[in-house]
Amino acid sequence: MSVDLSKRTTEEVLEHHIRTLAAGELEEVLLDYTENSCLINMAGTVKGLDALRAFFRDSIENCLPPDTDQTFEVKRTDGKLAYIVWKAESRFYHVPFGTDTFVIEDGHIVLQTFAGIMQEV
C-alpha cells in the first residue's frame, strides 16, 4: 500500500523533512520535493530532483551528517507556508543560526529558502 504524499499537510511535510534530513535519509528527504522544486540559498539556486539530490548528499556527507547535534524550532506555519529556526554542531561545521522558509503545495516543498551562519570547525 503506497501513501499519497500529495495529501500531506504543511506540518506533516515539515516534520518528515526535518526528521529524515537529520537522520541522513537522502531518498526519504527527496520525497518532499518534485522535479519543479527550487531551493534558494546563499550559494545560489538548486532546482529539480537531480540537483537537490546532489545538494542534500553533499550536506549529509560534508556538512551536517546524522551524528550532528541539531535543534529545530518551528516558528510558524500558516497554510502552505512554514518558517523554522535551527542550530547545529557537527564535526565539520558550527551553525549558531540557521533559518529556512518553505512553500508547501500538494504535500511537497515547491520553494525553500535557507540562510545561516556556517563556521568551519
Outline the structure in words.
- This protein has one domain: Roll (Nuclear Transport Factor 2, Chain: A), CATH 3.10.450.50.
- It is 26% helix and 48% strand.
- It is built from three helices and six strands, in the order H-H-E-E-H-E-E-E-E.
- The chain has helices spanning 10-22, 26-30, 49-62; strands at 33-41, 44-47, 69-78, 81-89, 93-105, 108-120.
- The chain has a six-stranded mixed β-sheet with strand order 2-1-6-5-4-3, covered by helices on one side.
- It is globular, with a radius of gyration of 14 Å.
Low-confidence sequence ranges: none
Overall number of strands: 6
- CATH fold title: Nuclear Transport Factor 2, Chain: A
- This entry's quaternary arrangement is single chain
Q: Strand percentage, roughly?
A: over 45%
Radius of gyration: 14 Å
How many individual helices? Answer: 3
